[in-house]
Amino acid sequence: MITKIAWMKALAVAWALWLGIPVMVWAQADLTGYWKFSVPNGGVSFLELKQSGETITGMGRGGPGRPLTGTLHNGKLHLEAPFGPASARRILIYEAVVAGDKFAATRQAPEGELVQGTLERVSHDEAIPPRLPLPDLRDLPDNGLARTPPMGWNSWNKFHDHFDDAIVRQMADAMVSSGMSKVGYTYIVVDEGWSSYRDKNGKITGNARFPDMKALADYVHSKGLKIGIYSSPGPQVCGGYQGSYGHEEEDAKTFADWGYDYLKYDWCSASGVYQSTRADLQGAYQKMGEALQKTGRPIVYSLCEYGLGDVWTWGAKAGANLWRTTFDISDHWESMDRIGFAQLDITQYPQPGHWNDPDMLEVGNGGMTGDEYRTHMGLWAMLRAALIAGNDLREMTEETKSILMNTDVIAIDQDPEAKPLQVQSVEGKGEVLVRPLTGEAVAVGLFNRGDQPAEMSFRWDSLHLGANLGNKTLKARDLWKHEDVPVTGDSFTATVPKHGVVLLRVAAGAFRFR
Ligand code: GLA
């Protein structure tokens, strides 16, 4: 139906032409269809748009789809696309002057830089690639790696994708010069942001910021460290860089040829290809697990699918050495507290070689107090979690170093027998957690999750340490204060600061603390 406005526009154009005035005859584009937003360094995201008049609706595609809304007014496109988990939902804003099926566009993330990119019309199959066959489920052999929880550094928490080859090398340097490598930190893991498009032979390549991934691995190895890389069973990793969809075996071989020792494999856009059911998750992760084992290179396999499908019940079968049990941590007390203590429900699953991963450390990133970071490190150690630092290792305060490099706390995390953590008591916001250690020893954590200092205690005999030995033979040490604690009376009592922890190692008989 021709509207009154359209008639008036047509009349105005005819009038102008009759007078000889040059006019731009502007026709409203129809953006309905699939679109790809790409940025020069290799990140892409897909949008499915439906246009009705000037109103746009649609979905973000290539990952967990989210409804988006926008307008096309006088050729100017404005789209608002929510992203991230419900608890931390944020909005991306796309803007462009529409010109055909490919044109320049920008994307603005909240508190993020304005990204210049290109919007381009693509086919349904490029935006929503078809499901690939997954292997029949079977139990993969144990790869023999990660007998204790992996320790290292990962780029994501501090840098997101704003980092490059030079920064990774500097982190390797700092891991050695700070003394971290001496106390067990080994893996330097390059998270999202290194990959670019595939070359003409289908081989995954590093982007302009990572021109030579093999040379980077050689450098990290030259420091006596190991190196990790990051990909996804989906076509893209979470921020849009290249994933391993359809190239699993080839990528595993490439990573092995380059000399990588660790792969973090993140579900991300696979949720747009497969179902997020246990069967599909296990199948997709087994596929890469098999591919890694086929390379013959020892590669620690780190699953990142946020705990979907109760991964702790099958991760080891898919060949994993560790599996994320939660959505992403952030550098705030609420996030760390919520994630950390939720792990208490699944402490029976980790075994040497196969660990729960409540996400990387935020220690040193500045969003928590010293007490909160000591709780973070202490709780992760009690949980037998991977200790993957996520801060800038080049500029650590003495306090950050003292937390990340507390060898007595690390020894709890790395205890060879890896016995499960037990909840001794919960009173209000106070939780007393106990972890039996190798030999006649236990780690005891008095965690105060409350907003006020709290007096907390436990009975010595509740530790069941050498029933026949009697209290006098127990030795106890405060692992954050680095001082012995007298074992007197029936109980230990301490005032634990708000959001803080008192962490003890209690041993029967002689024990040398480092
Ligand atoms: C997911 C993961 C994070 C990080 C980002 C990268 O959110 O959970 O640890 O790897 O992807 O985009």
What kind of sheet is the major sheet? 8 strands, antiparallel, barrel
Q: What is the share of helical residues?
A: 10-25%
Order of strands, widest sheet: 1-2-3-4-5-6-7-8
Q: What form results from the Cα inertia axes?
A: globular
Distinct helical segment count: 11
Rg: 27 Å
Average pLDDT rating: 92
Quaternary structure annotation:
single chain
Separation of termini?
83 Å
Structural class: alpha+beta
Strand % is 25-35%
- Poorly predicted residue ranges: none
Ligand catalogue: alpha-D-galactopyranose
Structure description:
Strand 5 and strand 6 form a beta hairpin. It is built from eleven helices and 26 strands. Helices cover 22% and strands 29% of the residues. The strands form five sheets. The protein has an eight-stranded antiparallel beta barrel. It starts with a helix and ends in a 6-residue tail after the last strand. It has 514 residues and is of the alpha+beta class. The longest helix is centred in the middle third of the chain and has 18 residues. Helix 4 packs parallel to helix 5, helix 8 runs parallel beside helix 9 and helix 9 runs parallel beside helix 10.
